[in-house]
Design brief:
Helix content: 25-40%
Oligomer: single chain
Strand content: 15-25%
Bound molecules: inosine 5'-triphosphate
Radius of gyration: 17 Å
Distance between the termini: 15 Å
Number of domains: 1
Length: 200
């Protein structure tokens, strides 16, 4: 069975591939398609954007299972920014380092004392008959004073998960994949897929 993940983010894809390993599934990323160009994420919520990505790829791969996620970081003391704009917080084509630097800078400028933050992930699975499964994951933590660590992507170097002293980028993918918002969202979907693959 083929499952296509509607992403252009290869680091996100690596996490998903690892989380789905040991299932009899051929997992592909949309970026493998030669002329794939991602749809505009103009939804106002993570759910709307995840559906936009899933439905867009479904139109190209109608017979396959399609998975999409939309995710981001929220800082409650900053009106939940960067939120759905996480990928483009420092501008339309911002690099990860520009987004993290801007966030640390803004928190400093605004003298934010409460550094609580959370990662959110909303995931959508579409089946061959367009059956839809939605699931969600949240990872609580705090924003570090400075970037640390080399693994992962996005805001990982400045995010310290609850009950830890190191950033996600220091902790590495194996630990991240036990804790993360994405891993939590995928848990329910993985169980659903296991049932289907076992013919339940
Ligand atoms: P696709 O839409 O192609 O999947 P993307 O990177 O644009 O790739 P999102 O729209 O879901 O993905 O944007 C999420 C942004 O939020 C992402 O670029 C990161 O900056 C941040 N983010 C989401 N999950 C993260 C994680 O696990 N670790 C660090 N940052 C994350």
């Amino acid at each position: 069975m083929e499952l296509w993940f509607a992403t252009t983010n290869k680091d996100k894809f690596k996490e998903i591939k690892e989380l789905l390993k040991n299932l009899p599934l051929e997992v592909h990323g949309a970026f493998e398609m030669p002329h794939y160009s991602a749809p505009e994420e103009n939804g106002e919520t993570f759910l709307e954007n995840a559906k936009i990505k899933a439905r867009f790829l479904k139109a190209m791969k109608p017979q396959s299972w399609i998975l999409a996620d939309d995710s981001g970081l929220e800082v409650p003391a900053m009106k939940n920014l960067p939120g759905v704009h996480s990928a483009r917080y420092a501008g339309p084509r911002a690099r990860d380092i520009e987004n993290t630097t801007k966030l640390l800078h803004q928190m400093g400028l605004q003298k934010i004392a409460d550094r609580t933050a959370l990662f959110k992930c909303v995931m959508v699975l579409l089946g061959p008959n367009n059956e839809e499964q939605v699931s969600e994951g949240i990872l609580k933590g705090t924003i570090a004073g400075q970037a640390k660590g080399k693994t992962g992507f996005g805001y990982d170097p400045i995010f310290i998960p609850e009950s830890n002293t190191q950033t996600l980028a220091e902790l590495g993918m194996a630990v991240k994949n036990r804790l993360s918002h994405r891993a939590q969202a995928l848990r329910t979907i993985r169980t659903h897929l296991e049932g289907i693959l076992a013919g339940v």
